[in-house]
Write a structure and sequence with these properties.
Blueprint (H helix, E strand, L loop, with lengths): L1 H13 L18 E8 L2 E7 L5 E7 L23 E2 L29 E6 L8 E7 L17 H4 L4 E5 L4 H5 L3 H6 L8 H16 L5 E11 L1 H11 L9 E5 L11 E2 H14 L5 H6 L2 H9 L9 E2 L8 H6 L8 E6 L6 H4 L6 H12 L3 H7 L5 H31 L4 E6 L14 E2 L5 E2 L21 H5 L12 H20 L20 E5 L4 E4 L3 H11 L2
Parallel strand pairs: 2-4, 6-7, 6-8, 8-9, 9-12, 10-11, 12-13, 13-16
Antiparallel strand pairs: 1-2, 2-3, 3-5, 5-7, 14-15, 16-17
């Protein structure tokens, strides 16, 4: 199973996608004015006040720049600043190649010096103790940024929530392990720097969010794809599991996934081989190399070029084992995935979607277990192949691991668990997009690009499509012709999320009742679409089978 999950990520990288499809507007048409000052543990900040009255503070450093001798070190404390710091512009994004077509950056360039966060608050004073949302971006741990408009926190802040987006190190800068790094570490660990950045940001929130009117005891962490995987990782880690009170995951978990941490010794071998490729015979030589040179070389390795590690510090053992033993953060969890996480082409490639070709693909992947798969993912005629292969590709890619996370936490977490399926397909693109068509991960393929591989027309909600709906940020995405029905779905989904952030329960007035997962009772799944509502689970046989095969 790990093979296809990694294969899916690699294809996400290898298919050429136009570099910018979301035309980000800095303030969604609003005029920003000077904001009031805030005192943090490191110094005074001044931000901006949006037309809506929301105060925004951007580019706040939460750790020292991870450069020089701090490259590949756990995050270190940021130095105090003696004068008022202008928090009016997003900080630089982490080092990354132009990978996905759906990332509209508003960051101040790209730099190793990337450990910044952003805060949006509706509070007028520091005494309001509002609930807090901390959101981790997606991007396969090789791309993404807290400045992306789809994660903008103003809409959530309008609902009485202090919203925070966080940057963290990516790729070789965030996950390289090496014997010399392990030796110099006070924890005798290496790798996992990106995850430790997230934990450091949560510690910053704990210490400082009250100054923005937030309640440090009411923090919910959330994220999509790699961000959702990060949420599960933070729940499983002993260094961070006490820094938040609830969690939201959108499509992804570090539980029986293709990105699960590997033994430290295995990751060290990867790091040692990489250093040799770079001609660096010492850690000092590796740290002396230009960041761009490291980035270009690492990019050739795809995902996960540098896996997370079981390092005995951030990750004492596999997250699945931690959740199974009930050693994770005991917090309410709301999580789910989309109805078309992957296209059938990840099963069939360029082969025609016929019964024969589907069976051949299954036999190639599953070998002696193929008959069991074909008994559950049934295709009786050619017309069945596209939807069934789409389900199997999506399950293998990300749905099964998210299901497993929910299932384990429901059994051992001792707190409410809620599951959703997001099914709203994106509408047609606006006429200004010309002959463009949707690509992977929300990207756009231009018709005049001979190297681009066009994806088939989506029948459901593709990977990452729910983000703007959940965060209330449809207006920022100018690619699609959003209809009143889309805004209806967004209102419903964001209301559920906002209620959960405030109370640990998504239910509220005017919303269909969202049942929690209860052991011993039939599973109810909230289907989020134009007509949202809870329905009995229809796919349990699929996930039970994949779980059985994963254990082999």
């Amino acid at each position: 199973m790990r093979f296809l999950q990694k294969f899916c990520f690699l294809l996400l990288l290898s298919i050429h996608i136009s570099p910018l499809t979301v035309r980000a507007q800095t303030n969604n048409g609003n005029t920003a004015q000077a904001g009031s000052q805030v005192k943090t543990t490191n110094g005074m900040l001044t931000g901006t006040t949006e037309k809506s009255g929301i105060r925004a503070y951007k580019g706040i450093p939460f750790a020292a720049p991870p450069v020089g001798n701090l490259r590949w070190r756990e995050p270190h404390p940021v130095k105090n600043w003696p004068v008022i710091r202008q928090a009016t512009q997003f900080g630089p994004r982490a080092m990354q190649l132009a990978v996905f077509g759906d990332m509209g950056f508003r960051s101040n360039g790209m730099n190793e010096d990337c450990l910044y966060l952003n805060v949006w608050t509706p509070a007028k004073t520091s005494q309001e103790k509002l609930p807090v949302l901390v959101y981790f971006y997606g991007g396969g741990f090789v791309a993404g940024d807290g400045s992306e408009a789809r994660y903008d926190g103003e809409s959530m802040a309008k609902r009485g929530i202090v919203a925070v987006t966080v940057n963290y190190r990516l790729g070789v800068f965030g996950f390289l392990a090496h014997p010399e790094l392990t030796k110099e570490s006070p924890h005798k660990a290496s790798g996992n720097y990106g995850y430790m950045d997230q934990a450091e940001a949560l510690r910053w929130v704990k210490q400082n969010i009250a100054a923005f009117g937030g309640d440090p005891a009411k923090v919910t962490i959330a994220g999509e794809s790699a961000g959702s995987i990060s949420v599960s990782a933070q729940m499983a880690s002993p260094i961070s599991k006490n820094l938040f009170r609830a969690a939201i995951g959108e499509s992804g978990a570090l539980v029986n996934s293709g990105l699960d941490p590997v033994p430290l010794a295995e990751a060290e071998k990867i790091g040692t081989a990489f250093a040799a490729e770079m001609g660096a015979n010492s850690l000092a030589a590796l740290r002396a190399l230009p960041a761009q040179q490291l980035l270009d070389a690492a990019g050739k390795r795809g995902i996960p070029g540098f896996p997370a590690t079981i390092d005995g510090y951030f990750s004492p053992k596999l997250p699945a084992a931690i959740f199974a033993a009930g050693e994770q953060a005991k917090v309410p969890l709301l999580a789910g995935w989309n109805s078309e996480e992957m296209t059938y082409m990840f099963m069939l490639g360029r082969e025609n979607p016929t019964v024969e070709n589907f069976k051949k693909a299954v036999e190639k992947i599953y070998g002696a277990d193929a008959d069991e798969i074909l008994a559950v993912y049934k295709v009786n005629k050619d017309a069945d192949v596209v939807p069934v292969a789409t389900d199997l590709a999506g399950d293998r890619f990300i749905a099964y691991s998210t299901w497993k996370w929910l299932d384990l936490h429901a059994q051992t977490g001792g707190k409410p668990v809620y599951r959703y399926l997001f099914s709203r397909p994106r509408p047609a693109m606006v006429p200004a997009m010309g002959n463009a068509s949707a690509g992977l991960a929300g990207g756009v393929v231009k018709e005049n690009d001979p190297n681009a591989v066009k994806m088939p027309q989506a029948r459901g909600a593709v990977h990452a499509a729910e983000i703007e709906y959940a965060m209330g940020n449809l207006p920022y995405n100018k690619v699609y012709a959003w209809a009143p029905e889309d805004y209806k779905v967004s209102e419903t989904m964001q209301s559920y999320f906002a209620n959960f952030i405030k109370t640990g329960n998504p239910n509220g007035p005017g919303l269909p009742v969202w049942p929690l997962l209860s052991e011993g009772k039939p599973v109810q799944v909230m289907h989020l679409d134009v007509n949202s509502g809870a329905k009995p689970e229809e796919s349990s046989a699929r996930y039970q089978l994949l779980d059985k095969l994963h254990k082999k």
